[in-house]
Amino acid sequence: MSEKRIIRIGLLGFGVVGQGVWKNIENNRQALEYRLGAQLRIDRIAVRDKTRFREVVVPEATYTEDPGSVVDDPSIDIVCELMGGTDKALELTRRALQMGKIVVTANKALICEHGEELFAIARRTGGHYFYEASVAGGIPIIKTIREALVANRFRLIFGILNGTSNYILTRMEREGLSFEETLGDARKLGYVEADESLDLDGIDAAHKTVILAYLAHGKWVRLEDIICEGIREITGEDIEIAGQLGYKIKLLGVIERDFESDQLCVRLHPALISEKEVIAGVDEVYNGVSVTGDVVGTTILIGRGAGQDATSSSVISDIADAVFTLQGAPEPVISEEDEAVYNKLADGLGIASKTALEGRYYLRLHVKDEKGVLASVSETLAKEQISFATVNQKENSDGTAILFLTTHETSEAAILRGLAGLTSTGLLGREPVMIRIFERS
Ligand code: HSE
Questions:
Q1: 231: CATH
Q2: DSSP per residue, 113-142
Q3: How far is the centre of ligand 1, averaged over its atoms, from the C-alpha of 318 (Å)?
Q4: In degrees, to the nearest 5, what angle opens at C-alpha 376 toward C-alphas 374 and 382?
Q5: Does 359 share its domain with 378?
Q6: pLDDT tens, position by position, 338-360
Q7: Co-location of 268 and 416 in the same domain
Q8: Which CATH number goes with the domain that contains 11?
Q9: Domain residues for 108?
């Protein structure tokens, strides 16, 4: 019986995900090594503080506080960057790829901000950069788009890519709790990122949306060029009114390509979505992605979008790909000319401006409860050719009222002008809130 090759792995970071990778390789070692035809050894783990208590106990000698030594170690076949952040992680990933190494990552912020450079280094040096765990936790969305759906051109990809905000919205809807109350629970459960803004302001999900847009269309979109809004403004009343109208409110990443005009629209924002859509039924910390390809039609993937086991499942899937690569699995042969031809495909692809969007909108307006207010609101919006589809009103005890409106088809530019117009009339007691209504084109 021939001895299986030993594949040596170095981890940069040993937090929740790193410990999950260790634990789940140990728990399933025999089957995993059978499937991979190789032995897996996590030989080195770089941490900031060796003495810190960790749930998963590993041999003391495995630890180092010098991550550079893991990257530089010639015996390490696969470097797993699970430390997060974009400073040290960038430097170490760059260094590993420059050496032609295989890097596996869960770092969505790093890919979103520096992916263009890092993938270019990997192509130049023959290194590899695997990133399944960076988008939608345990859902194999990267492999699905890159491999299983390779025959397709993607007209629409949309979905829920942030588990924390989906958990908050779900509990607000089911239990009538406020944003603050559910946020407190999400914190206690350890769902919220250390930098809460990443989850609550949509940045984390926008990072993932940008990665999927690149994967599907070969175009890097800059975060500052797209709509990126989180869930802080959503109230229980919005969720209730949306429910009465047959919608749920979800934080959606949307990647829409118009092949005729060759425009790509990438955006991340809360949206009213028909409760008949499968994605509308994806609740709690789950993520869901709907992919519409011109050959396959629509495919929907739903699964755990965050957490130790789900994320480490994706990291181990990338380790498996890395093992096959190390064992000489055939890969596409891409010459520089091929690369140039492929890049040209995305050359003419324009990025739709933030205000180019068209659709229907939900508005929440806090007004004085007086005669003629609705007529004035209607008149101001009519100047922008905005007409109402539905109107609901709630009277408050302090002489104010809240108008909940949905509009007919209009444009983002008209809505923004209309809201500015309303603000300048002095009719509003506080900033108006606008939520886009998601509909398939
Ligand atoms: N904070 C992220 C989320 C973790 O809630 O989805 C997984 O990327």
A1: 3.30.360.10
A2: HHHHHHHHHHHHHT-EEE-GGGSSTTS-HH
A3: 19
A4: 100
A5: yes
A6: 877 877 778 889 999 999 999 99
A7: no
A8: 3.40.50.720
A9: 5-137+309-345
- Closest by CA position to 220, among listed 376, 349, 406: 349
List the one residue out of 81, 86, 285 whose CA is nearest residue 192. 285
Residues 124 and 150 in one domain: no
101 backbone φψ class: left, alpha, beta (φ>0; ψ -120 to 50): beta
Ligand 1 centroid to Cα of residue 162, in Å, is 5
- CA gyration radius for the chain? 24
Amino acid sitting at position 391: V
pTM greater than 0.90: yes
Residues 184, 292 within the same domain? yes
| Per annotation, catalytic residue among 108, 208, 219, 248 | 208
CB of 137 sitting under 6 A from ligand 1 = yes
Instruction: Ligand 1 pocket test: pick from 160, 199, 309 the residue with the most ligand atoms within 8 Å of its Cβ.
Output: 199
Q: Are residues 340 and 400 in the same domain?
A: no
Q: 64 and 170, same structural domain?
A: no
354 is catalytic: no
350 within a domain of the structure (yes/no): no
Residue whose CB lies within 8 A of the most ligand 1 atoms, among 182, 193, 313, for a mutation test: 193
Q: pLDDT of 174-216, one tens digit each?
A: 999 999 999 998 888 878 888 999 999 999 999 999 999 999 9
Do 34 and 71 sit in the same domain of this protein? yes
Please indicate, yes or no, whether residues 206 and 287 belong to a single structural domain of this protein: yes
> Among the atoms of ligand 1, which is closest to the Cα of residue 164?
5
Nearest CA to ligand 1 atom 7: 306
Split into its structural domains, the chain has a count of 3
Judge if the beta carbon of residue 162 lies within 6 A of ligand 1. Answer: yes
* CB-ligand 1 contact for 163 (6 Å cutoff): yes
